[in-house]
Amino acid sequence: MAKKRTMKDEVAKLFAPVRERAFYEMLIIFKPYLPDQVRAQLEEKVESILEKFEGNVKAKAVWGKRVMAYKIKGNKEGYYVMYYFEAPVDVIEEIKRELGHIPELLRYLILRLEQMSLEKLKLLAKKAVVME
Asked: Which of 30, 59, 90, 130 is the most exposed place for a label (fewest CB within 10 A)?
């Protein structure tokens, strides 16, 4: 049953501090020999983590299996997925903490980007699925 909204809730919402948001690029490397179904579930899990912390996925590019320069956790290969998303600045550490709890994840890297347009996003993410 949904909670009844009161006038106090509406006023609190109006005067809530505005959270600074920024664009980010995140590279995820999964273990290379996971079944497609498991990998799809993991991708959904990553996206749900971003959404949990008010992130908005703008584009996703699946690079697929690639040979790495050095072994990570005994793996010479990894399955690469690149995400472009917008999120509040103060939640990135929380996202990193949540990603650290996924055992099938070999590595991740999150970089803050400049403000960008969808056209620039499409150029950055070749073969990307742009989620408008």
From this structure: 90
What does the angle CA 17 – CA 9 – CA 85 come to, to the nearest 5 degrees? 45
Where do the structural domains in the chain lie, given as residue ranges? Answer: 20-130
The per-residue pLDDT for range 49-84, each reduced to its tens digit, is 999 999 999 888 899 999 999 999 999 999 999 999
CB atoms near residue 68 (< 10 Å): 15
Are 24 and 67 a contacting pair, CB within 8 Å? no
For residue 15, how many other CB atoms are within 10 A of its CB? Answer: 6
Residue-wise pLDDT for 13-57, tens only, equals 666 666 788 889 999 999 999 999 999 999 999 999 999 999 999
Say which CATH superfamily domain 20-130 falls into: Ribosomal protein S6/Translation elongation factor EF1B (3.30.70.60)
What are the residue ranges of helices labelled H in the chain?
7-14, 36-52, 92-99, 118-124
Phi/psi of residue 129, nearest 5 degrees: -95, 110
- Write down the residue that tokens 């403000």 correspond to: 115
Which residue is it, tokens 């099938």?
Answer: 104
